[in-house]
Write a structure and sequence with these properties.
Alpha-Beta Plaits; 5-stranded parallel beta sheet; 9 helices; single chain; 287 residues; THUMP fold; alpha/beta; Rossmann fold
């Protein structure tokens, strides 16, 4: 099974109690996607990191790239914190990437007590890799290398990887309540997405469910309902706000429709240029 090292950021700034709840929700969100797809995975947690083992790599990478709360992830190889074993794993991992006259660097970080510092580990691993491929005339470049190799040592475990794949960031779905999203046109799903990114479950009211399909990649349990009176829908669905994809012109023309609402209304797109909305839609639709 392939191993993925998963990083999250904003969650770590919360209090211990809140952070534990958010971390648990993030793990559950990942696992639920595998269960829904009838695929196997194994998950472990270490402070600041989640480790995931899975067989289906394309499926796994799509899931991680579409799971809110994940800042980045890497497919990694694991060994112990013994330097000699790290050197050998680094050499083996670099082998498919090395070409003649290529520049490279080693980025290392560690967590725990070890007989070496992060800088010493990076230096010594770099020397081992350089000597292993000396016949290819490699060059060390710490600023703008052709190839980077990363090492992360956590207590008695080490992880070696070659890339960091960006996740959506934000907060795990289900940590921040429920919002009613009104989808009348494609642009409106771009208003739902930032609310989801902040951890809210969005319940979508629309006459055209096909418009909402891109959001299912971000929330496989997305709930869709028939549109109607905003206040009644919000009360019945027990939502704590409403998200609308209105621009300034639409707001000026239709703001009276909101006069009697007694809950917050969010306009995530109201300050965005058309080009920025198109970029956001492209991200939402990304596969």
């Amino acid at each position: 099974m392939a191993l993925y090292l998963i990083r999250y950021g904003e969650l770590g700034l919360k209090s211990q109690k809140v952070r534990s709840r958010f971390e648990r929700t993030l793990r559950e969100n990942i696992i639920s996607r595998f269960i829904k797809a009838s695929k196997e995975c194994r998950v472990e947690y270490d402070r600041g990191r989640i480790f995931l083992w899975a067989d289906d790599e394309p499926f796994t990478e799509k899931v991680l790239a579409h799971t809110f709360g994940i800042v980045s992830f890497s497919k990694a190889e694991e060994t112990t914190s013994d330097q000699e074993l790290i050197f050998q794993l680094a050499i083996d991992t670099a082998r498919p990437f090395f070409k003649e006259n290529m520049s490279f660097c080693i980025r290392a970080r560690r967590n725990g007590q070890h007989p070496y510092t992060s800088m010493e580990l990076a230096r010594d691993t770099g020397s081992a890799v350089f000597l292993a491929y000396e016949h290819l005339n490699p060059k060390v470049n710490l600023t703008n290398p052709d190839f980077e190799l990363f090492i992360e040592v956590r207590q008695n475990r080490s992880f070696v990887y070659t890339e960091k794949i960006q996740g959506p960031g934000g907060m795990p779905l289900g940590t921040q309540g429920r919002t009613l999203g009104i989808v009348e046109k494609q642009q409106d799903i771009a208003a739902c997405w930032p609310i989801m990114k902040r951890g809210c479950r969005v319940i979508v009211a629309t006459n055209n469910p096909e418009l909402t399909e891109p959001l299912r990649d971000w929330d496989p349990s997305l709930k869709i309902i028939e549109p109607g009176d905003l206040q009644q829908l919000a009360n019945f669905q027990k939502t704590e706000g409403i998200a609308l994809g209105w621009d300034i012109a639409t707001y000026d023309a239709r703001q009276e429709e909101l006069a009697d609402l007694d809950l917050p209304v969010f306009f995530p797109l109201i300050g965005m240029a058309d080009a920025d909305i198109e970029k956001l839609l492209a991200k939402i639709n990304s596969q």
